[in-house]
């Protein structure tokens, strides 16, 4: 099993609703003892219902195999009526179809990619490589996600390409990156309820023990990047976070040890 790395000291388990400041800036470093609240959540929920589709039980029953088996074989797209460029994922056991992201959605991904490429150019021993919109099979959960960016080793990417694998396994990945859009943003964030009523990508990545999850939240009232780490499989939660407002420089800790400029990152329209 992969050795778990952390982006800070392991914290004692907290009771629901209790948070404790970590060393450093109290504005940016907090534990995850309580679900995070966002001012524009209700707006996002209303917008999501118009743009993100979840297949009904009747639609799923007409599929020739289980959604997960079809997704793993790369065949689920053939059986789901969705606009070109849509992302079809299995989240919490449900088939979720998200519309194609807008142009500004890709800005943060471009800057993150450049940061990793520069680090590789500067250090021939730098092992990390990035891959955009790669399928990720969550080991042991029966879910399949398509994050905006995955960080793994060049060796793993080359081996997967050589074997012509349709997706990566979650235990091959060191970090995932998600950029929120006005539709479906709630599915990328920590759940509001503790324990969560419904599973989403945040809980799924934690259950699959993906070591690092970088969430770029482009909501106008948030405009913040958050690095989650110390995944707890039993609770489906990350136990530590570090945040940067848009315009501040992100510093990814070891094993990456690189900086990402966010000066030009923009929110979606309010």
Automatic annotation (TrEMBL):
Entry annotated with the keyword Nuclease: yes
Matches recorded under SUPFAM superfamilies: Restriction endonuclease-like (SSF52980)
Domain Putative restriction endonuclease positions: 83-261
Key word Transmembrane helix present: no
GO-annotated molecular function: endonuclease activity
Keyword vocabulary terms for this entry: Endonuclease, Hydrolase, Nuclease
Pfam families registered for this protein in UniProt: Uma2 (PF05685)
Annotated PANTHER family: SLL1072 PROTEIN, SLR1083 PROTEIN
Protein name in the entry: Uma2 family endonuclease
Organism of derivation: Actinomadura geliboluensis
């Amino acid at each position: 099993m992969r050795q778990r790395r952390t982006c800070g000291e392991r914290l004692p388990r907290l009771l629901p609703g209790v948070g404790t400041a970590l060393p450093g800036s109290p504005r940016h470093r907090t534990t995850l003892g309580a679900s995070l609240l966002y001012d524009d959540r209700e707006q996002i929920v209303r917008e999501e219902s118009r743009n993100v589709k979840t297949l009904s039980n009747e639609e799923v029953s007409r599929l020739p195999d289980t959604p997960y088996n079809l997704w793993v074989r790369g065949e689920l797209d053939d059986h789901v009526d969705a606009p070109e460029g849509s992302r079809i994922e299995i989240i919490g056991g449900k088939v979720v179809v998200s519309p194609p992201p807008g142009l500004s959605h890709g800005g943060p991904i471009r800057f993150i990619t450049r940061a990793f490429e520069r680090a590789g150019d500067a250090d021939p021993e730098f092992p990390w490589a990035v891959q955009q919109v790669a399928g990720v099979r969550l080991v042991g959960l029966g879910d399949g996600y398509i994050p905006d960016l995955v960080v793994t080793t060049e060796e793993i990417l080359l081996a997967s390409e050589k074997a012509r694998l349709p997706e990566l396994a979650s235990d091959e990945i060191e970090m995932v990156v998600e950029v929120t859009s006005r539709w479906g943003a709630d599915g990328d964030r920590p759940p509001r309820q503790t324990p969560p009523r419904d599973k989403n990508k945040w809980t799924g990545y934690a259950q699959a023990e993906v070591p690092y999850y970088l969430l770029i939240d482009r909501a106008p009232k948030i405009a913040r990047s958050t690095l989650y780490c110390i995944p707890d499989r039993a609770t489906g939660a990350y136990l530590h976070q570090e945040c940067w407002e848009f315009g501040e420089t992100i510093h990814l800790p070891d094993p990456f040890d690189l900086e990402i400029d966010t000066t030009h990152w923009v929110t979606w329209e309010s």
